[in-house]
UniProtKB/TrEMBL annotation:
Superkingdom, natural source: Eukaryota
Residues in Myb-like domain copies: 126-171, 176-242
Keywords of the record: DNA-binding, Nucleus
Ranges annotated as biased composition (Low complexity): 35-46
Residue span of region Disordered: 1-47
InterPro entries on file: DMTF1_DNA-bind_reg, Homeodomain-like_sf, Myb_dom, SANT/Myb
Protein name per UniProt: Myb-like domain-containing protein
GO terms assigned for molecular function: DNA-binding transcription factor activity; transcription cis-regulatory region binding
Keyword Isomerase appears in the UniProt entry: no
PANTHER family xref list: CYCLIN-D-BINDING MYB-LIKE TRANSCRIPTION FACTOR 1
GO CC entries: nucleus
Keyword DNA-binding listed: yes
């Protein structure tokens, strides 16, 4: 086993030139990569194989387009389809190194980061709640293949991260249900340590800081140190402690007071200012949507078409319905109560709206089917 001094000799620190980085003013983290000949370690470097100062946090629309174009150009050059690249790059020899080449388009992002973001954008992975059948299949595949998530994702058409998180949630070695006080305190301590902040920093203040600076918390590492709580369980507990709905809802979140009443907290503007701004809107210029139209469908359709990333970007007073912002958060809260895949939490607002719309449409179709079988002329007899 190599000693610490021997490992230090293998460390390389060839950093990307920050003076050429368009995000040089952004918060960065330094990855110092040991064993430069390791393919696994190259995964954490940039596409040029350099140890680098990585930009973390959400991808901009410009970055996403750059990756999409780089993938399309690479696939055209190699004469392969985008779907094949996204589906088979983990286990086909002829596709080895493809994402290192693609990642050169964003030299201030790691290969792993570009790969994961690219797959989320281009791979037709299924998202949303898991069916009972899918859960049974997941358990069966783990039993036969082991925890080879890259292989399992291809069989279930669910991302490797989603499969891993769902299995951890089901794993009997993880504790589920109410958090004990000592567990909660341990989680708080680990989060503060991971973010290198004051050991006594208030959770609400910490949540605001993470939200404002778009900091990515290493939930996998925290889950491992917790020992008996899954990554998803830790994340959901964080949401409850901080009052944050999800990263897509920058600008506003809800807290629950001791007496059970909901309190609204605005980031960047107070509730009073929000109400004042709303009162200043010329009511004559706002026409309420027709009563025959489903207001939720109207609201979701508008949000999907606007293609916004976060709630604070939306001009809620411009919608032709009363209290559009509050209605959006009610829809989000209802959706989150039925959502188990935490990879969805980082989606842009418009994509969240699309998922809520899909769920609402499916529920309506199911209701119509139930009503139809009870109509005259349809047989609804069930033999026991």
């Amino acid at each position: 086993m190599a000693t610490a001094s021997q490992q230090d000799e293998d460390i390389t620190e060839t950093f990307y030139d920050a003076s050429q980085d368009p995000y040089e003013d952004s918060e960065v983290t330094t990855d110092v990569i040991p064993n430069k000949n390791s393919n696994e370690n190259n995964w954490h470097k940039n596409g040029f194989g350099q140890g680098l100062k990585t930009r973390t946090g959400k991808y901009t629309k410009e970055e996403t387009e750059i990756i999409k174009n780089a993938v399309k150009e690479y696939c055209t050059m190699k004469q392969i389809s985008v779907s094949r690249l996204c589906s088979e790059c983990d286990h086909k020899a002829d596709l080895k190194g493809s994402w290192m080449e693609i990642a050169k388009c964003l030299p201030y992002r790691s290969v792993q980061s570009v790969y994961r973001h690219g797959l989320r954008q281009l791979h037709p992975f299924k998202r949303g709640a898991w069916s009972d059948r899918e859960v049974e299949q997941l358990i069966g595949f783990v039993a036969t293949l082991g925890k080879k998530w890259a292989h399992i994702q291809a069989k279930l058409n669910r991302s490797a991260d989603s499969c891993r998180d769902k299995y951890r949630e089901l794993d009997s070695s993880y504790v589920r249900g109410r958090w004990q006080e000592e567990e909660t305190e341990q989680l708080k301590r680990l989060i503060r340590e991971s973010l290198n902040v004051d050991p006594k920093m208030d959770m609400l203040a910490l949540g605001k800081m993470v939200e404002a600076e778009q900091i990515t918390i290493a939930w996998s590492a925290i889950s491992k140190r917790m020992g008996k709580r899954s990554r998803l369980s830790c994340f959901k507990k964080w949401q409850k402690m901080t009052g944050l709905f999800s990263p897509c809802d920058v600008g506003r979140f809800k807290l629950r007071s001791d007496d059970g009443r909901a309190k609204e907290v605005a980031s960047g503007r107070s509730k009073q200012n929000s109400a004042q701004a709303k009162s200043e809107v010329d009511e004559s210029s706002v026409s309420i949507v027709d009563e025959t139209v489903d207001v939720d469908v109207y609201l979701l359709t508008e949000l999907i078409s606007m293609d916004y990333s976060k709630a604070s970007d939306v001009s809620w007073d411009e919608f032709r319905i009363d209290d559009a912002e509050n209605r959006w958060y009610e829809l989000v809260e209802e959706w989150q109560s039925n959502m188990t895949d935490d990879s969805l939490l980082a989606l842009p607002l418009s994509e969240i709206a699309q998922l809520i719309m899909d769920r609402k449409t499916s529920a309506q179709r199911a209701a119509e089917t139930v009503e139809a079988v009870d109509l005259p002329g349809f047989s609804s007899t069930v033999q026991l």
